[in-house]
Amino acid sequence: MRVRQPTAAAVAALLLATGTVAGCSGAPAPARTPAPVPSSAAPTAVTGDVRPYDRAGVRDGGTLRWALDAVPTTLNLYQSAATADSALLAHALYPALFRPDEHGRVVPDPDYLLGAESTPPGRLPQVVTYRLNPHAVWSDGTPLSAADFTAQRAALSGLDPAYTGTRPAGYDAIDSITQGADPAEVKVTFRQPCAEWRALFGPLYPAAVTASPAAFNRPLAGGPQPTAGPFVLSGQDGYDPAGGRVTLVRNPLWWGDQPKADRIDFLATPPERRLDALDQDRLDIAPITAAVDRAQAAPGTSADRAEAATQALRRAEALPGVTVHRAAAASLTQLTLNAARAPLTDPAVRQAVARAVDRRRIADAALTPLGLAPAPLGSHLFAGDQDGYRDNADALGPADAGRLLDAAGWKRPKGGGTRTKDGRQLSLTLLIPSDSATARRTADALAAGLAGAGIAVRPQAVPAETFVRTGLATGGYDLALFSWPAGPTPAVDQRPVYAKPRPGPDGALETGTNYGRSGTEEIDRLFDRATAELDPAAHLALLQEADTRIWQLGHSVPLFQRPELVAVRTGIAGAGAWGYGWPRFQDVGLLTG
């Protein structure tokens, strides 16, 4: 099977980190930016955990020190080298016309977009009219305009193969872009309806860096390119990969609320060094999920990884002048079943495994040690507090795992133990990232639950840096544990994960990012119809039907939302664990007094 590799940002997402997906057509959108106990309980909210603040109580001036994993090689989120750090910096420097609210709904950001309106459902062609903030300008003084939309569409539509990088779905559905009644009005006409049009042009890049393949393909990192955020890079030395630093200062042309901080120093600080850096007062804001999850036992001790993670969390909570903020991230951890590998080629066995998974027990094992509510998920497409969430696990039906396996010929020995069929034991490998305590706790809880149904589980730990390449992509496993980003536009965000694998030009089956390697024409059609359905109620109904069919297919089992832990120094306002959103950088600053 040929497998399209996800971008670096997707790899981070797959391994219980962060990432984004964007896109609006039936074509797969590369990621940028990888139950037997049904529960109707609402999972942990993704509204975030950010210290309440009033801008009037945040003082003007000061420097913030913010941790990055590394200085990214590009700020262009449509290039394959983009990372989660690329996305964080891009939010401070480039326009995002829409922002997700606390329930995952995308709403206009008035700093850039005063309003946007699509033609009503049923009226063709679909035309979206954007009303840009007339004060919004690039850092060279040029207003945001239709020219930027036109250039970005040319770069991302796939019509010109000279543009390399990702191809977010939706841009290929655009027929034309024109200026409206004045320079602040942009009209985008689609050749086919696009329900997720709000996912487009976020971020929006200046025409100067998208108008030609040469400009677009060049790594976007520092340099003189125009930006349009509340902050700008600090001169020629503001982007320093060798020194591990990105320095942002106030944008003198910024038209919105004045940024509170004078300067933000983004400092490359590997997860294993973050708690030390916080303890030594060298950081103010630091995501610490990985620092806790991947903590190593001290030399000479017998503590295992789980105990090391517990000790790391206790240390973080005890740091003087530091608060640990917690939220359920907009990222869905799931158990994927490889339908291309026996015995999971049998749909009945996949359904039995799905029925045997104790989602509540797993969520408790994964999240409770981190101080988060142990809320299991019941949707492949929506996070728990996302608008439209519904637990569809009942789609598996009332039959228990044992009856399904008995009917499929897998018999349990008298007195219990692992089931067998034709002399073969029902023993499944489970692929997990080797350095994650959360993944190990999840694997242990999963194995215990499946053992109760006579299914043996053999965890196989794979290093994070090769998890996708030598693990998921090869297909040499039965079960796999990882996370996908939960975007605000699941019709396009999640379609590639569940798209039916199809033969390529040479006849080899192309699975793309469908690591479960199962799919149906019906599921593909439901996603396609949802993508083109402009009526919100009908759009959601199609997505719920798709989720139901994914449950019945036995493709994967949603487990829980990935935990997000962020350490913030006392006296910093507007920072914490953001859940669905991202920082409003102009509001983050030092409290007065």
Can you summarize this structure?
The protein has 593 residues and is an alpha+beta fold.
Tell me about this structure.
- The chain is of the alpha+beta class and 593 residues long.
- It is 25% helix and 21% strand.
- The chain has 16 helices and 25 strands.
- A 6-stranded mixed beta sheet has the order 13-22-14-19-17-18, with helices on both faces. Strands 2, 9, 10, 11 and 12 form a 5-stranded mixed beta sheet that branches.
- A hairpin with a 5-residue loop joins strand 20 (502-503) and strand 21.
- Helix 8 (347-356) runs antiparallel to helix 10 (401-407), helix 9 packs antiparallel against helix 11 (437-451) and helix 15 packs antiparallel against helix 16.
- It is globular, with a radius of gyration of 24 Å.
- It starts with 7 loop residues before the first helix and ends with a strand.
Number of helices: 16
Q: Order of strands across the biggest sheet?
A: 13-22-14-19-17-18
How many beta-strand segments? 25
In round numbers, the mean pLDDT is 89
Radius of gyration, rounded? 24 Å
Helix content: 10-25%
Uncertain stretches of 5 or more adjacent residues: 1-14, 16-46
Looking at the structure, what is the overall shape? globular
Largest sheet: 6 strands, mixed
Structural category = alpha+beta
Strand content: 15-25%
Instruction: Give the termini distance in whole angstroms.
Output: 62 Å
Mind sketching the topology for me?
Layout: H1 8-14, E1 49-50, E2 63-68, H2 84-93, E3 98-100, E4 106-108, E5 113-118, E6 127-132, H3 146-156, E7 174-179, E8 185-190, H4 213-217, E9 231-233, E10 239-240, E11 245-250, E12 263-268, H5 271-279, E13 285-287, H6 289-293, H7 305-318, E14 322-337, H8 347-356, H9 359-367, H10 401-407, E15 420-421, E16 424-425, E17 427-433, H11 437-451, E18 456-462, H12 467-472, E19 479-485, H13 490-493, H14 495-498, E20 502-503, E21 509-510, H15 521-532, H16 536-553, E22 556-569, E23 572-573, E24 576-577, E25 589-590
Parallel strand pairs: 2-12, 17-18, 17-19
Antiparallel strand pairs: 1-24, 3-4, 5-6, 6-8, 7-8, 9-11, 10-11, 11-12, 13-22, 14-19, 14-22, 15-16, 20-21, 23-25
Helix pairs in contact: 8-10, 9-11, 15-16
